[in-house]
Amino acid sequence: MLTSVELFAGAGGLGMGLSLAGFDHLAVVEWDRWACDTIRDNQRRGHPLVSDWPLHEGDVRKVDYAALTQPVDVVAGGPPCQPFSISGKHKGYDDTRDMFPATVDVVRRLRPRAFIVENVKGLTRPNFANYFSYIVLQLEFPEIVRNSDESWSDHLRRLQRQKTSGNRSGLTYNVVFQLLNAANFGVPQKRERVFIIGFRDDLDVRWSFPKETHSSDSLLVDQWITGEYWDRHKVSAKAHGPLSDALRAQITGVRQRNFRPTDERRAWRTVRDALAGLPDPEFATNIAAAIPDHRFQPGVRFYTGHTGSPLDAPAKTLKAGDHGVPGGENALVRADGSGRYFTVRESARLQTFPDAYVFHGSWTESMRQLGNAVPVALAHVVGASVARKLIEHDMLALATTKVRM
Q1: Residues 29-46: pLDDT tens digits?
Q2: What is the DSSP track for 169-234?
């Protein structure tokens, strides 16, 4: 069994994906009491993906990692992203919420065979380029610690000198990163996040990010060339409303390329796909008890830049919001221009949480947890790819040992 330690676990999206990928969590750490209550609620309900998680409510910097008696294969987590969020204050390395130094410290202590770090697209903004390089180099050389009287930029230069020297003694990692769009991996949401993956140098692992499995072109074919999408949902294509000039141009491009979907690149999943089988909470009655977290939330208001998610495309990125969900966000918009907020259950489906997984707190609090979460399906894809490489390494090492014997 592969082992992992989960940092900044939130409501459990990344951890659940790693559980599905075969990892046994030795510790799951989260400071937010609402997110911890969500995990505990599901443990009491016996949810199989979290039932045996050793949950630590508190600061990742104060956990006694020395108490872990088993070697750790993977350290995973999404350090708080507000310092780098496009919708946040953009304070980055000047923000006290920056938990990347704490993440590096845990990697240094536990010496895992690999790590998986996830964060917002804003981390790759040009004005954070130097600090992003700094993060990657710290993860590559976690034993080169910043001195108490050293600025982060001076520490960066020292790490750069280490990198160019070719000296890779001590604890070092082979690090790669990539911006992934969750929609390209079967998540019904256009959610772009940067993943930073590292394998310990002594493993001599050669790894690359998984291939994308879904595409917008395949969705256009299903909807506007074969019509299979509309047939599957038993609705008329006209229900989508008039086509925009931009969409017409995309369809023309697909036709001109003579695009044919393949098993490797299936159609993007849409909001309509994700919500299939759920009654509309605005008009249905007596569903709150039958379907957990599926209650109508009034008050949506669309305005420029906050126009909701069309039914027949992947949803826009779900947002957490420092002070609640902004008006017009985390909402669906119908062909006639009307719309409503997504329920917690609908949002959970957009983040690929199982229907049996419930969320603790009000709509606003639950949406904050969901807006900060890693889609379970995407975490599974990335985690399974890392797991396969570690297992391949172990099998090769075992075979080599048997030959020598």
Answers
A1: 999 999 999 999 999 999
A2: -SS-EEEEEEEEEGGGGT-SB--EEEEEEEEEGGG-----PPPP-EEHHHHHIIIIIS-HHHHHHT
